[in-house]
């Protein structure tokens, strides 16, 4: 599994992180609605073309997670997006889960779908140029939630996804996301995240997944969105690193964060704070969706004349997060 481990290392190379541009149809529709444009195939192609053909982001971005449709799309000049990435030395990745559906017997909890027919899809994605995959499970904190049943089912499915990806020669990004929704405090988030990750690593081990050929994608330890106060970056960083040290094996080459509803700046500041700690065995990096795209998407707003300024904003966000990879970011470096 030497190749997998090399790809995984490249995904979390120093100074670089991953762009999550794998919004599913319902998600991209929601994001586009905010800028007043409709989610047509043409608009999705134009938007992803704006991002992927930007100049210079390859200095800060090691890989891009794409949605199935995007992996098959081309630029206006007929070049497949995967080729554009390859030319830049950026690894193309692909979201392979098919979203979360209600768990049997529960109106509150969800289990991620997509194991059926997965080996055949993985084979096709590899042929289209993908080097890594992603599968996201979601957990909500609430009264008696998440349940053990939900944690176990999602962990087993994440492990099956990871095993299948490795068999297909693709590095799995294993993403259990404890959501920020709710009014819980930071310690509840730490407790639930620790429990979820313990179950995930136990199932990965049972499924004989090579840990040096995966990337973990996690939430940070954060209070819920509706909690009375925010936590300081220092507290977030300390609690997140401490919890990872308890449950994430050192064989895992890197942990990348999702932004999960943090603002662009918060996501950068918190990552920077973690990397100032330095005393941990993995690379701590980013795999942000909204926190790399929000400003760029707003400026683009579906108009050709806005492409250049939007690309500039995307490049700047990627650069700020690249600095946060080594704890060298500071707010006065912002434009
Ligand atoms: P956000 O950074 O917007 O949370 O998206 C990252 C992601 O890939 C969620 O699956």
Automatic annotation (TrEMBL):
Question: Which UniProt keywords are given for this protein, alphabetically ordered?
Answer: Glycolysis, Lyase
Domain of life assignment = Bacteria
Identify the pathway.
Carbohydrate degradation; glycolysis; D-glyceraldehyde 3-phosphate and glycerone phosphate from D-glucose: step 4/4
State whether keyword Lyase applies: yes
Keyword RNA-binding on entry:
no
Top-level class of the enzyme under EC nomenclature: lyase
Name the chemical reaction catalysed here: beta-D-fructose 1,6-bisphosphate = D-glyceraldehyde 3-phosphate + dihydroxyacetone phosphate
A Gene Ontology biological process noted in the UniProt record is: glycolytic process
Q: Which GO terms describe its molecular function?
A: fructose-bisphosphate aldolase activity
Q: Which InterPro entries match?
A: Aldolase_TIM, FBA_I
State the EC number(s): 4.1.2.13
Signal sequence coordinates: none
* A Pfam entry, by short name: Glycolytic
The entry assigns this protein to a family as follows: Belongs to the class I fructose-bisphosphate aldolase family.
Q: Which PANTHER family match?
A: FRUCTOSE-BISPHOSPHATE ALDOLASE
Name by which UniProt lists this protein: Probable fructose-bisphosphate aldolase class 1
């Amino acid at each position: 599994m030497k190749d997998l481990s090399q790809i995984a290392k490249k995904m979390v190379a120093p100074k670089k992180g991953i762009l999550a541009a794998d919004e599913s149809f319902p998600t991209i529709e929601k994001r586009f609605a905010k800028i007043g444009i409709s989610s047509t195939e043409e608009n999705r192609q134009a938007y992803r073309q704006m991002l992927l053909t930007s100049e210079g982001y390859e200095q800060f971005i090691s890989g891009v997670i794409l949605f199935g449709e995007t992996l098959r799309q081309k630029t206006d000049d007929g070049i497949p997006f995967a080729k554009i990435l390859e030319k830049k030395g950026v690894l193309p990745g692909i979201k392979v889960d098919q979203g979360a559906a209600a768990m049997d017997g529960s109106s509150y909890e969800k289990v991620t779908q997509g194991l059926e027919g997965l080996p055949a899809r993985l084979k096709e994605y590899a042929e289209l140029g993908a080097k890594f995959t992603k599968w996201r499970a979601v957990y909500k904190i609430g009264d008696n939630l998440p349940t053990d049943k939900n944690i176990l089912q999602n962990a087993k499915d994440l492990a099956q996804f990871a095993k299948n990806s490795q068999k297909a020669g693709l590095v799995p990004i294993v993403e259990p996301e404890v959501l920020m929704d709710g009014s819980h405090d930071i310690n509840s988030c730490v407790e639930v995240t620790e429990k979820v990750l313990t179950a995930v690593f136990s199932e990965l081990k049972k499924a004989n997944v090579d840990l040096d050929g995966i990337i973990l994608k996690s939430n940070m330890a954060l209070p819920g969105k509706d909690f009375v106060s925010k936590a300081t970056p220092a507290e977030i960083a300390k609690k997140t690193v401490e919890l990872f040290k308890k449950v994430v094996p050192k064989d895992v080459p890197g942990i990348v964060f999702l932004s999960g509803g943090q603002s662009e700046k918060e996501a950068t500041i918190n990552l920077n704070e973690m990397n100032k700690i330095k005393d941990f065995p993995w690379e701590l990096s980013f795999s942000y969706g909204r926190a790399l795209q929000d400003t760029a998407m707003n400026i683009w707003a579906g108009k050709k004349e806005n492409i250049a300024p939007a690309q500039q904003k995307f490049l700047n966000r990627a650069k700020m997060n690249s600095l946060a990879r080594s704890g060298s970011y500071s707010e006065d470096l912002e434009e």
